[in-house]
Amino acid sequence: MRKMAKEYEMSRESMRTIVKDKLKMIPYRMQKGAFLNQKNKTLRMKKTRKLLAGTKDGSHLTTLFTDEKIFTVEANKNGQNHWIIVTDYQSACEKEKILNKTSHLASVMVFAGITADDKTPLNFVDSGVKVNQVYYWEVASRQFSEFISDADWPASSPDLNPMDYAVWIYLTEKVSSKNYPSIKALKTALIKKWDEIDDDYLRAVIDAYPKRLKACVEEEK
Questions:
Q1: Which DSSP helix (H) or strand (E) runs through 34?
Q2: Burial 75-92 (b: 16+ CB within 10 A, else e)
Q3: Nearest-angstrom CA–CA distance, 166 and 169
Q4: Which backbone phi and psi does 64 adopt, to 5 degrees?
Q5: Backbone dihedral angles phi then psi of residue 41, each to the nearest 5 degrees
Q6: Looking at residue 40, what is its pLDDT?
Q7: How many angstroms separate the CA atoms of 123 and 116, rounded?
Q8: 5, 118, 163, 196: which is deepest, by most CB within 10 A?
Q9: How does DSSP classify residue 108?
């Protein structure tokens, strides 16, 4: 808004009014996404249609959706979106509003899965261990029978995985809003918030799954 207002020699308020009220446009933050070539797009659509057809019998309600994610001991904040008004830099530091960015953060990888009414324990993956389908089965198959194999899952599709589009976002919001003094403290916070995820939330998350598949298919039409 500032750059456009300067270019057209008007106030930011006037530019904001034009964009919002006259043009009915909404600002969105740029986000990274996977690039799919035509071959991958075709394959993604084929697998998505198959998964959507499979939801008609309600089997997605008992399907185990899994994923892994890395959490760090440092708060997950974007300096461009978190401002503080103080008289000087030192005051901000004293109020713990300045985040010290380090090159090699202490971190932990977690693996977990959910169904519409249940979830696996939150598993901490040892350093150097490759999380793959074999690991999924070793950890989760003892408790859950339904599972989507790598061969059936659309590539580069975090928008279709409930763990990506809802669960990790929820856990990040609950846990990664502050710094932690140690990995142990981070793990304690992760376990606590994971255990607090209730069945109502899980059901709502899984109920969105067929809708996302359908939206993906309709977008291609």
A1: none
A2: eeeeeeeeeeeeeeeeee
A3: 5
A4: -90, 120
A5: -65, -45
A6: 84
A7: 19
A8: 163
A9: E
Those residues of the chain that have pLDDT short of 70 are: 28-35, 77-104, 128-143, 145, 220-221
pLDDT recorded at residue 92? 55
For residue range 19-36, list pLDDT tens digits in order. Answer: 888 888 877 665 555 667
pLDDT in tens, 78-98: 544 555 555 665 655 555 544
State phi, psi for 146 to the nearest 5 degrees. Answer: -85, 130
Two structure tokens written together for 17: 């009014």
Q: What is the rounded CA–CA span in Å between residue 190 and residue 194?
A: 6
Taking alpha carbons only, the member of 196, 152, 150, 155 closest to residue 173 is: 196
Provide the pLDDT for residue 79.
46
Which of 107, 32, 17 lies closest to 71, judged by CA? 107
Give which of 67, 50, 59 is closest to 166, Cα–Cα.
67
Q: Which homologous superfamily is 35-77+106-220 in?
A: Ribonuclease H-like superfamily/Ribonuclease H (3.30.420.10)
